Every structure is written in C-alpha cells, then in structure tokens.
Amino acid sequence: MTGNFNIRDNDWDPNYSHYSIHTKDLFTLAESLGLDLSPPLNPGPTRFADNLRNTNSVIDLVFINPNNPGFGQHFLHPELCRPLDHVPLIIEVGINETNIDNFFWSICKDSKKKRTLSKL
C-alpha cells in the first residue's frame, strides 16, 4: 500500500514537530492488512514545497508486509520529481508465483447468446 497520504506526522518526518490525529487510523488499517510502515533506504522529503512559506514534507509512504524482502528497501528519487512536486518512490517487491484462474462474463457482438463465460 503506497501513495500520497497527505498526513504530516513526526513518526515519519523528523522535521515536523507534531502528531496527526489520522496516524492511528492509518496504522490500524495497515495492521489489519498485515502491513507496516517501510522506511526508505535514503530518508528525506517526499513532497517539495511550491512556495517559501511552506516546508518540504514527508507525506508519501510505503506500507508493506514486514516479512517481505522488499521491506525497508525502497528508494526516494528526488532527481526524478521535476516538474512535479512529489518524489517518486521505487521499490521491488517479491511476489510468489501463483496461478489464479480468472473468469469474466461478456456479451459478444452480434451474439445470439446472452452471456459468455470466458477464462483469461
């Protein structure tokens, strides 16, 4: 689970001196999914302020299962963020090979059948 959570908190941003009321809910959700906050290999801001009144911040986070080999292995790439204001987070996640049969219903064009079950 990753993305821009728009939550500033001292738990992941040492330059921010406050704690958010939303942090507990975020950690409760992550825990319910078996995930934990993954620290980047090169900590730093994930969003650069667009004016001098604001400060750079850490609001883009990665949550991953702590047993996954990718835990704590993602990189921030500030050199790739311009012209955007968010830093790309790049992680390689190990996924076990599993075959999953996927089925979907479709209606073929000009078909006399009402539905067709297809296997991907």
What does this protein structure show overall?
With 120 residues, the chain is mainly β. It has one helix spanning 23-32; strands spanning 2-4, 36-37, 60-64, 75-76, 89-90, 103-106, 116-119. A 3-stranded antiparallel sheet has the order 1-3-2, covered by helices on one side. Strands 4-5 form a two-stranded antiparallel ribbon. It is extended and about 65 Å long.
Topology:
Elements: E1 2-4, H1 23-32, E2 36-37, E3 60-64, E4 75-76, E5 89-90, E6 103-106, E7 116-119
Antiparallel strand pairs: 1-3, 2-3, 4-5, 6-7
Fraction of residues in helices? under 10%
> Numbering strands along the chain, what is their spatial order in the largest sheet?
1-3-2
Beta content: 15-25%
Described by the principal axes of the CA atoms, the overall outline is extended
* Low-pLDDT windows of residues: none
Q: What is the distance, rounded to the nearest whole angstrom, between the alpha carbons of the first and last residues?
A: 26 Å
Order of helices and strands: EHEEEEEE
Secondary structure: number of strands = 7
